[in-house]
Amino acid sequence: MDIGSAILIIGLAALAAAFLLLVIGLVYSELMNSDVPRGVANSSKLHMVHGLFVGIAIVGRILHRLGICHQVSFIRWFVACFLTRLNPVPVGLRVKELTFSEVPVRVYEPTGVCEGLRRGLVYFHGGGWVLGSIDSVDEVCRHIAIKSDSTVVSVGYRLAPEHRYPAQLDDCEAATCHFLSVAEADFSVDPRRVAVGGDSTGANLAAALCQRLARREDGHLPSPCAQILVYPALQMADFNLPSYQQNQAVPILFRGRMVFYFLQYLSADTSACQDVLEGNHVPTELRPRYESWLSASHLPPECLARGISERPTPQYDAELYHVVRAGLEPEVSPLLADDDVIRKTPPTFLLTCEFDVLRDDGILYRKRLLDLKRDVAWQHVRDGFHGMMNFFNRGWLTFPSALRPVESVVDYVKTL
């Protein structure tokens, strides 16, 4: 080997080592800023998985700044290639890749004998409207279909930042309405027993869709018979609710990250994150109305047990409001819808987790539904964290605690 080649190899090795040390240092710094409470389920594994996700995000950020690829594109690629594995289809289930009104879907049909028509569930995956896919919830949808003897349709809606609001909601509506129109003829499913549901931002889409369909009431198709909302994101008006304060650094969803996802969804400048966190995007005249729905006094006493702090009065920024105003509309923030709309929504299953920034969104929505005499089934996972259901049957990424929320959904679907 000549001297030039040796120098080149040594230089490349030094660059690789420097890159690795940089990533390790940044991951360590991020981990030091995280908080895994003592009572959370599978806490040691959550630490490990959080470190992995932080590392992926940091490498993506570095590649983005070097102009090699977008951070989001790298994360999607890494998760699809290394963290997502599709297992063989189990006996008793038929899986089809289809397109409903130009929206890709995956349909899970039990193959056992069924007397009469089956029930159905149209499912929207989470991921902050930015990440996630049909594959990411494949095991969840398989389990629900088999255990509840129901046909499940998983919707591959378009993602931000390539596609902004309302593309995601439009796709969910198109796929749902298509399924409702062909459910009986093509899938032996009773269209009057079809629910919609999802987790995290997928639950946001489910709630927003139910409200959109309730407002229309065109009568051409039956409305969803229920909405299944698993740790839903339901409002962009207040990021200082007790759950946001108490769980602001609990993996895998940090308080600041939720604002980032909302801004990506709305096509807004993500540099506005801090102003939105402080509430500067909410007009002064709207705050009393939102306070009547979002007050911490509406929460159960146990939600306040870990303490909250008073925040300074936000300084309204009119320019910021005009950039993100769609985020305060009910189709992005279903918790902020008028009573007349919420009163028309179907029976609801709500699942919340104690160690989740979105805990209070779900609990406050439950209160609004109950105040309006709507049927609500609520399951609260006291040692749960955001995103836990996505770690169901995921090989080495599996969390034993993930089975509980999935089984809770199965039990509810069986009642439809």
Q: What can you see in these coordinates?
A:
Helix 4 links the parallel strand 3 and strand 4. The chain is of the alpha/beta class. The mean pLDDT is 92. The chain folds into two domains: 3-83, no CATH class; 93-235 and 327-413, Alpha/Beta hydrolase fold, catalytic domain (Rossmann fold, 3-Layer(aba) Sandwich). The longest helix has 30 residues, at 3-32. 43% of the residues lie in helices and 15% in strands. This is Arylacetamide deacetylase-like 4. The active site is at 200, 356, 386. Belongs to the 'GDXG' lipolytic enzyme family.
Q: What descriptors fit this protein?
A:
single chain; 416 residues; alpha/beta; Rossmann fold; 2 domains; 8-stranded mixed beta sheet; 14 helices; 8 strands; transmembrane; Arylacetamide deacetylase-like 4; transmembrane helix; carboxylic ester hydrolase activity
